[in-house]
Design brief:
There is one protein chain. The strands form two sheets. The chain has a twelve-stranded mixed beta sheet with strand order 9-10-11-8-7-6-5-4-3-12-13-14. The protein has helices spanning about 45-60, 75-85, 100-110, 125-135, 140-150, 170-180, 205-215, 285-290, 295-310, 330, and strands at about 1-5, 10, 10-15, 65, 90-95, 115-120, 155-160, 185-190, 220, 230-240, 245-250, 265-270, 275, 285. The longest helix has 15 residues, at about 45-60. Helix 1 runs parallel beside helix 2. The protein is α/β, with parallel strands linked by helices. It contains ten helices and 14 strands. Bound molecules: guanosine-5'-triphosphate, S-adenosylmethionine and iron/sulfur cluster (2 copies).
Length: about 325
């Protein structure tokens, strides 16, 4: 098991498959992009498959999410999903993507064994989309969403980061859009993980403000326990989701309503580093061990040791808080 000193056990593995991306969301990356990982430092598909297998077979991982950067840019993605789906016990398999290319990829991913997908979409307005992501690709994301739903990658969740003065007024419109198409809408507080280090707490749109803007929907408390999920969910009266269940909306209040006490996550970067927290400032180099001839048991033990050192929480409010050197796109959001 991947246990830490605070009694938490990691069963949810988040794997970053690349640090590259075809968008430049302002809260994530600078316009010019970043210095991408050299190819030789990136894990090969076989190396990713091996570490996922070790996680599942030796360390109790039950859920694997592939992310990035943009995971659909990883050429071997379908094969990596296939390999994970063939493991015993079979983990639940998810992808978090910006949706570009999903129109073409949704069916192959579903056939490979992908269970669900989360698509990031911050605005329904093409001009705002261009301003926020620095690319004119809104139409691609919208067709990607539809393709994911018709391929059965459900429930399709939409992730939205609200930004002051840019799209903070758009929560009701995004929720109406999600309700119309049967997607589950989630709003996310912006975290200090941007490459530019420009995050400002006072600029962040808080969970409380988001909920206030959704007041006209008459949201009701969700009777289903949240478990270890980052999102707090509410029922939207009078609406059903695509499966005929009561429609839900989620708010991920990572900063003002942290959920670190229930954290069940462990992360693997595209260059083979274990991170025990999104905000960890130290990493454990499984790539070096693996390329140096380590056995599966050696790698599993190094992973266990890395998780034992996990801190109680992200500490964003501590005066001593240090933003990690890696930005979100290189950690795997
Ligand atoms: N603080 C914190 N925030 C996280 C963590 N994981 C994800 N998030 C935030 O939650 C957002 C949504 O994450 P996703 O990858 O879409 O999925 P999820 O919410 O973890 O999982 P599901 O609800 O099961 O789909 C991310 O964009 C982050 O902003 C985490 O471990 N810690
Ligand atoms: C880093 S991206 C990687 C996957 C894919 N490129 C995407 O955008 O979905 C994963 C998620 O992190 C979110 N994210 C990025 N930077 C963030 C930040 N500073 N604070 C909160 N969420 C952030 C994105 O909105 C996205 O939903
Ligand atoms: S949030 Fe996702 S889509 Fe946007 S720049 Fe970061 S990695 Fe790319
Ligand atoms: S900030 Fe770290 S401890 Fe808190 S939920 Fe995220 S990964 Fe877990």
């Amino acid at each position: 098991m991947l246990a830490d000193r605070f009694g938490r056990v990691a069963t949810d593995l988040r794997v970053s498959l690349t640090d590259r991306c075809n968008l430049r969301c302002t809260y994530c990356m600078p316009a010019e992009g970043l210095a991408w990982l050299p190819r030789e430092e990136q894990l090969t598909d076989d190396e990713v498959n091996r570490l996922v297998r070790i996680g599942v077979e030796l360390l109790g991982i039950t859920e694997v999410r592939f992310t990035g950067g943009e995971p659909l840019l990883r050429r071997g993605l379908v094969g990596i999903i296939q390999a994970a789906a063939a493991l015993t016990p079979r983990p639940r398999l998810m992808v978090t993507t910006n949706g570009i290319g999903l129109e073409r990829m949704a069916v192959p991913l579903r056939e490979a064994g992908l269970d669900r997908i989360n698509v990031s979409l911050d605005t329904l307005d093409a001009e705002r989309f261009q301003a926020l992501t620095r690319r004119d690709r809104l139409a691609d994301v919208l067709v990607g969403l539809e393709a994911a739903a018709s391929a059965g990658l459900t429930p399709v969740k939409i992730n939205t980061v609200l930004m002051r003065g840019i799209n903070e007024d758009e929560a009701p419109a995004l929720l109406r859009f999600a309700l119309r198409y049967g997607y589950q809408q989630r709003f996310i507080e912006q975290m200090p993980l941007d490459a530019q280090h420009q995050w400002d707490r006072h600029e962040m749109v808080t969970a409380e403000e988001i909920l206030a803007s959704l007041a006209p929907f008459g949201l009701q408390a969700d009777p289903v326990s949240r478990g270890t999920a980052p999102a707090e969910t509410w029922l939207v009266p009078g609406h059903l989701d695509a499966a005929g269940e009561p429609a839900r909306v989620g708010v991920i209040g990572s900063v003002t309503r942290p959920f670190c006490g229930d954290c069940d996550r462990t992360r693997l970067t595209a260059d083979g580093q274990v991170r025990n927290c999104l905000f960890a400032t130290e990493e454990s180099d499984l790539r070096k061990l693996m390329r140096g001839g380590a056995s599966d048991d050696d790698l599993a033990e190094a992973w266990r040791v890395a998780m034992r050192g996990k801190r109680a929480g992200h500490g964003i409010d501590d005066p001593s808080f240090l933003q990690p050197a890696r930005p979100m796109s290189a950690i795997g959001g």
